[in-house]
Amino acid sequence: MPAPAASEPDRLLTIGEVARRSGLTASALRFYDREGVLVPADVDALTGYRRYAVSQVRAARLLASLRRVGMPLAEVALVLDEDARGASGAAADVVAAHEQRLVDGLADARAEIRRTLALLAERDRAVGASRRVTVRAGELAAAIGSVRFAVAPGEPVAGAPGGPDLSVLTGMLVEVGDGEVRCVASDRYRLAVGWAPVVGSSVVGSSVPVGDRLTAVVPVDWADRVADACRDCEDDTEVDLDVTAEQVGASVGGELFATAVVPGSFPDYRAVVGGGPDRGAADAGGLRSQLPIGTESVGLVVLDGRVQLAPPDDDAVADVLVDPTFLQEALAVAGTRPTLVLDGPHRPLAIRGDGAGFSVLMPVAPDGVRP
């Protein structure tokens, strides 16, 4: 009588059967055998034919999936070992860690692509109707530096359907007028404005009416490179800025930096700034060193013309509540003699320093939630 057929869990599968069930090729299965990642249950000593247990199909499927997303072999082997002994949680932790690396790598790749596109724009920039102004390197670097902290972090994120496009907030607004160049940055919770006086101007291409301002949003990487180049020069070195609706260029120390503008409309920062930061300013000297660390909000109160911390357990005494980390960053670029304008618990807090720039912070609720 013929021997009874082996039941499915007990029988061994050929390499072809495992290939069909797992999505791996036979050559890939041989490779993973040689690497010790997926070793067959049996290898014929004479023919070299590989035979796999039915239970190994699951491992082969996992292997195929993990290799498709680029997981290194050593980590794949760890996942398969943990899964084989029933430690699915430990296996999932390895997979989750690899996923996070992919997310971080994608963000780095996108940033690198933006830098590459900016470099390509420097090679071949079109010259059209523009405003060309000249500023001093030290003052332009200071203007960029005074607003850098307020740029929205991370990758551009579009707003809700029908709402504002927030991708422009990952860039920096450059506004060129007859008397000054303004740099503006905002992440919706804070806004910073810096400026550099214009020491000369000319027209390239079509004219821009006197008194009008030409604006463009530039990638923050470009602004950083321009600021670094300015810091490498003497403070009074002249820097030429060319601004058009499509491109912005800066000539610093004989080197050209050019970039395409970030598409989208930057929010009307003047509506937030209002009358400016000079009204009712109170001395905030020494406040930065007093700010607590690790709290969601801090209360501020004006006493005898000086800004002081409100009692930590009495929010009702405070004139305004703000994020202490954001305030710390704003005071850091405000210099040694900062002043603050507190217009009430629901109005932005204005911070002015001894340099050419100021910033505003949105107030927060007692639990740290921003309105």
TrEMBL record:
InterPro entries: DNA-bd_dom_put_sf, DNA_clamp_sf, DNA_polIII_beta_cen, MerR-type_HTH_dom, MerR_fam. Residues 12-82 form the HTH merR-type domain. The keyword DNA-binding applies. The keyword Magnesium does not apply. It comes from the Bacteria. It holds the Pfam family DNA_pol3_beta_2. Keywords: DNA-binding. SUPFAM superfamilies: DNA clamp, Putative DNA-binding domain. This is HTH merR-type domain-containing protein. It comes from Terrabacter tumescens.
